[in-house]
Structure formats: structure tokens, C-alpha cells
Amino acid sequence: MANKQYMQLGCLDVDATAGCGFQVRAETEAELFQLVAMHAKQCHKLDSLPPEMAAKAKAAVKTVTVTV
Ligand SMILES: [Zn+2]
User: Fold this and answer.
1) In angstroms, what is the span from residue 1 Cα to ligand 1's centroid?
2) Ligand 1 mean position to 54 CA, how many Å?
3) Which helix (H) or strand (E) holds 44?
4) pLDDT at residue 55 in the model
5) What value does the mean pLDDT take over residues 8-24?
6) For the chain, which terminus, N or C, has the lower number of CB atoms within 10 Å?
7) Chain mean position to CA 41
8) For 31, what's the count of Cα atoms within 13 Å in the CB-facing half-sphere?
9) Which of 18, 20, 4, 5 is nearest to 61 (CA)?
10) Contacts with 35 (C-beta within 8 Å, 6 or more apart), sequence order
11) Distance CA 60, CA 62 (A)
12) Mean pLDDT of all residues in 27-53
């Protein structure tokens, strides 16, 4: 068993009214935002994150420790 740090972000962290329970974890911020962008495109029809939403998302990123 070991502890691993992940960055975590959920739709509800960015937009509480989104009504979307999507949550993503990744080891790096770059990977995290790649996954978020993919989800935003598929589920929210956003081809790219608007700058104010991207800023909000960045601020909402949490670091979590997971035991693996
Ligand atoms: Zn979503």
C-alpha cells in the first residue's frame, strides 16, 4: 500500500448548477484538464472552455491523497 497524490476536479466544483456529477482525477494538471476538456465537449457541448470557466476550474482543483 502506498499513498498517491491526485488532482481532482468535478463539474459541481466549477458550476454548482450544472447538475452533472462528473468527477475526474489525474496525476498532473495537464492530464486533468485534458480529461475535463474532453468531458466538456462530449457532455456539455463546449468545444473549448471559456476563459472564465477555465480560471474557475483551475481554482477549484483539489489535491487528494489516495491509498493504492
Ligand atoms: Zn459535466
Assistant:
1) 32
2) 13
3) helix 29-44
4) 95
5) 93
6) N
7) 13
8) 8
9) 5
10) 24, 26
11) 6
12) 94
